Amino acid sequence: MKAPIVCLSMFMLFSPFAVAADAAVGEKLFAATCVACHGAKAEGNPALQAPALAGQQADYLQRQLTQFRDGQRGAKAGDAGGAQMAPMAKALADDAAVANVAAYLASLPLPQVAASVQGDAAQGAKLYQSKCGACHGGQGEGNPAFSAPRLTTVGDAYLKTQVEHFRSGLRGYDAADRFGKQMKLMAGTVNEAELIDILAHLNSLGAK
To answer: What span is annotated as the signal peptide, if there is one (predicted)?
Structure first.
């Protein structure tokens, strides 16, 4: 058992996300850089296609901000939201700033988000468990071990757009985006009606 522990320790030591974080500093950075779109409590703004970020996993948030900054996400023509996010991510000075913002957001209570889609939640539950639950958790709570984000508090309009972006290649296009490429494959297995049902199911779960 010693070898895996050593390997895990080495991974954490050299991981790009293994940065000591200060949520208090992150709160100030969020207020200066992110609040206009994502809301004072990081509750999101569907009108701007800005997802709720409160309570999301810190490692996932760090990875997305880094990908926006480095052009691995949001760099393709047609991704208007991604094009807006890229300069915001670049405004964070370094990896420590990214980690601080992520730590602050992860510390916030989970928001309650309003539903905007009407689907068959019971059918969506079956689809979710067969296509999504293994990575994102049985209750949509996410799984850091798989770098799979929480889905129940992001907002259905944003989730719908992102699945469509994965399907069309606006996300998951970069060779370095390993998890995005996995999602691109999964998004291709779900049609529009099935997606609406899955979103209805996630809405029925509430904040988890």
So the answer is: 1-20
